[in-house]
Design brief:
This protein is mainly alpha-helical. It is 80% helix and 0% strand.
Amino acid sequence: MNQPVPSLIHRSPKTLFPYLFTALFLLAFIDSWRRAGIEPMVLFAAKGRGNVWKFLSGMFPPDLSWNFLSLMFRPTLETIQISFLGTLIAVIIGFPLGLLGTHTLMVRGILNEAELQGVPVRRSLRYAIYFLARGVLSLFRSIPEFVWAFMFVRAVGLGPFPGVLAIGVAYGGMLGKVYSEIFEGVNDRPLEALQSLGANKLQIFFYGWFPQALPNFVSYTLYRWECAVRASAILGLVGAGGLGQQIEISMRMFNFNEVLTLLMILFLMVAGVDYLSARVRAML
């Protein structure tokens, strides 16, 4: 005897979720396409093809003259320095805020069960610190580094320094958020073993917690440094120094062959940082 097929109405919410998600995704896609004014054929129209060809043909051959390359040495070095110092400041900002924003380190988990049990005032204070740290991290990463650069250029003037500050603050929020998630994902069993042996909270952190998180910690930090190299070039467009400022000048003067040379230099820089990051990760 054939069994009746259950109707869509009687299905559980869990069964209905894929259909609802697909419908919402298609609705969001169609609405976004319409509101963003996506017209792919404009790029292939006569005017679009002419502008693209003018840009591409002007890029070749790239300017590899010694006079131009020698002038680009300082901006290239400046870009690397901006990215490195910006990432360093981001770690200095993100690491302590990431610790304070780690739920299992501040208010829950094995390190807090005995300490906060029966002490509501201390637990409330911990929660206040936790939410404050999460709020600061959200504020830092919600504002793009491009906007931070605008504000710091107004505050300290043109040059590399506002680029360093912009990357440090914006990436500090990103790193702190990821650091907290890395710390929350560690295995609790080594921590319980250390606690059973009489280790204090600081010893448990440095001998049980931090060693587990260190590989992911270093890996993501190096990835953010690679992103900072690209970001430092973009920040130069608002007067924050580095290669970005040279790209903006070459684009304004319609020297597209210089733009290609600068993009090649930027590619080599990112590839070099990626290679260095891979070697460091292999050592962990």
